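Q: What changes when zinc ion is included in the input?
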Amino acid sequence: MPRTYASVDLGGTNIKAVVADEAGVIVGSQSIPTLSYEGPDKVLDRVAALVVALAQQVGHAPEALGMAVPGLVDLQHGVTKFLPNLPTQWRDVPVREHLEPHVGCPVYVLNDVRTATLGELTFGHGRAGGTMVFLALGTGIGGGVVIDGRLRLGPLGSAGELGHQTILPDGPICGCGSRGCLETLASGPAIAAEGVRLLLSGLAPRLYELTEGQPSRVTTREMAAAAAAGDENVRHAIVRAAGFLGIGVANLVVALHPDLVVLGGGVAGIGDLLFETVRQTVHQRVQVFPAGDVAIRPSLLGDGAGALGGIALAMCGGQLGQ
Ligand SMILES: [Zn+2]
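A: The predicted holo structure follows.
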């Protein structure tokens, strides 16, 4: 039996656990509701039970567990510092200390988007090495930066919060407290909000058909379909948001001249219209050096980046980028 590693992705709604081998081949997986209102202790008890059950199912104890959490973490001690979207915000919760006696292996804890970046680095496009920027475009916009093959964490593990670069100086207020962050302009909710406005204004007939006129059904996926079906206003809304994203990517290209920019998360599912707009914007905005060699690509791992990132975290034993 080859060595196996476990990964847990703690989300606001679900906890996903996988067990995989060293090649990143998943041999077992399971998902349970987070029930975050129960508080950290009970949630962690269920995480432990989930990992133990998966190990029994696979018939092999994991060598280590990598756990992704939505917020700030003390990586060295495996303690959560601030998970803004969970009740009590998990301040100073000793996750490693809580889990290790139950799961019987070392536990490493990292921010979820940095974990996804590590997944893309280890098992996805990043395998080619070099410098990579990863943007997770979803309800928020998270990111991660790999410099010369090594994940950049910074002293607080917060390096790579790429969704909170200022794009519009006096733009909408952001959850982080600033204004006009990329996240306020190109996240799923930001794009969908404009879709809802167009729907309710009678300016998006195809979107109206696709959603049966129900604002709650407007997502970036529906908007992409409506744009493809001929809704010019919806197309314009997507291009505008993708243009802001392109400015954000252009800023990163100027700062790092990466080999690769990877766009993941649900918003990246808009597809060609988004990617072509980002590429064009980068081409227009980066004039100071030729940036045509910077590849801008969808995530190779898709939804699996987080789970495989946890496996990569477990495999490297918290020695990130070594
Ligand atoms: Zn912000």
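Observations recorded in class: The pocket of zinc ion is lined by residues 164, 174, 176, 178, 181, 183 (CB under 6 Å).
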